[in-house]
User: Which sequence fits this backbone?
């Protein structure tokens, strides 16, 4: 039973991280004038909102209670907290790359941690699907360093 609680706690941590990412990307979209960048950040915000829904469903399927994060602020929101940092495309790309690497690294760590437990296959599928989505976004960003992609493979 303690293992199940640990898995649910880990998924709630991921839920919190997705709340941070959703709000951070939305905040960035609101600060930018470039329509393509605005669209990219809105798309990422919507993707993270979708991730949240999937994780909530998984927590419920495990018999847990999804936490509600109304005022969460984390590294993704912090990255976009200052509009003056988003003045050039180069800065936007670097900031976005850093944010996505944070997310992918967190997901990778969580997936590896959960691999130690005996959990439902659906939990692993949820994590793998989200990790792959983030990795695809990373690879689409211009100028992505090859070592970043290599670091995310496992």
Assistant:
């Amino acid at each position: 039973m303690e293992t199940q609680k640990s898995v649910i706690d880990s998924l709630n941590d991921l839920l919190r991280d997705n709340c941070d990412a959703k709000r951070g990307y939305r905040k960035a979209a609101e600060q930018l004038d470039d329509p393509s960048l605005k669209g990219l950040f809105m798309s990422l915000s919507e993707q993270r909102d979708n991730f949240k829904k999937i994780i909530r469903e998984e927590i419920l399927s495990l018999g847990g209670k999804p936490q509600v994060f109304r005022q969460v602020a984390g590294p993704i929101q912090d990255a976009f907290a200052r509009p003056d940092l988003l003045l050039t495309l180069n800065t936007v790309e670097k900031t976005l790359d850093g944010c996505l690497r944070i997310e992918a690294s967190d997901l990778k760590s969580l997936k590896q941690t959960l691999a130690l437990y005996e959990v439902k296959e659906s939990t692993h599928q949820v994590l793998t699907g989200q990790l792959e989505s983030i990795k695809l976004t990373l690879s689409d960003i211009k100028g992505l360093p090859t070592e970043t992609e290599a670091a995310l493979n496992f």
